[in-house]
Amino acid sequence: MSTAADRRFPQIPEEKLTPEQRAIVDDIRAGPRSKLATSSASKPGPIGGPFNVMLRSPVIGMLIQKLGGEIRFNSVISGKLNELAIIITARHYMANYEWNAHCKLALQGGLNPAIAQAIAEGREPEGMDADESLIYEFSRSLHNNHGVSDELFKRASDRFGERGVVDIIAVNGYYSMVSFLLNVDKTPLPAGAEPALKPLKK
């Protein structure tokens, strides 16, 4: 498990932020993330998680975090289903920090804990409803097959509309990037948290 000493991008004290970096932090803390207990945006001190890494490239960082806010808070896909796609992505990339934050949100949104546990263990969950099954199948196909079949595309389009399909693609793609940021940084879990994701057997 990574520790603060392992991380490759040390957190930047607020007094050492450049004006461009300060603008990103201020924008994040002025938005809806600051109301989430699981987000570093809601806590005092240096910004953490993937945002800490984004600060190193301020123009890209600002664009990325704004895109993430749109994907998380303005999607036509419900919060529970959006969070389901996020934890599927976290499992695929074994991004424990991402899992730790978003599994809680998925459960708060009504996801059955047994479904989350099955995903963590690399098993196809039982007992999913029709929408959960569709998000699971679509997200897994994106990660494993790098696309979806015509039949799966039609089912998703019929259920969620064209915008919904784009929003599902976007949440999977965005959190793939977030997984890369976290994994390259070796971002440690919050104090007291244990990694829920283990390497899967090939």
What secondary-structure arrangement, pairings included, does this model have?
Blueprint: H1 19-29, H2 49-54, H3 58-73, H4 79-93, H5 96-108, H6 113-120, H7 130-145, H8 150-185
Helix pairs in contact: 1-3, 3-8, 4-5, 4-7, 4-8, 7-8
How would you describe the overall organization of this protein?
The protein has 2 domains: 14-73, no CATH class; 79-182, AhpD-like (Up-down Bundle). The chain has 8 helices and no strands. The protein has helices at 19-29, 49-54, 58-73, 79-93, 96-108, 113-120, 130-145, 150-185. Helix 4 packs parallel to helix 7. The longest helix is centred in the C-terminal third of the chain and has 36 residues, at 150-185. The radius of gyration is 17 Å and the shape is globular. The mean pLDDT is 95.
The residue fraction in helices comes out at 55-70%
> Structural class, judged by helices and strands?
mainly alpha
Main sheet record: none
CATH-defined superfamily of the largest domain: AhpD-like
Classify the beta-strand content into a percent band.
Answer: under 5%
Which whole number gives the mean pLDDT? 95
Q: State Rg.
A: 17 Å
CATH class of the largest domain: Mainly Alpha
SSE series = HHHHHHHH
Number of E-type strands: 0
- The CATH architecture assignment of the largest domain turns out to be Up-down Bundle
Task: Enumerate how many helices there are, as a single number.
Answer: 8
What distance lies between the first and last C-alpha atoms, to the nearest angstrom?
21 Å
CATH topology descriptor of the largest domain: AhpD-like
Shape: globular
Q: Please, what is the oligomeric state?
A: single chain
Residue windows where pLDDT falls under 50 for at least 5 positions: none
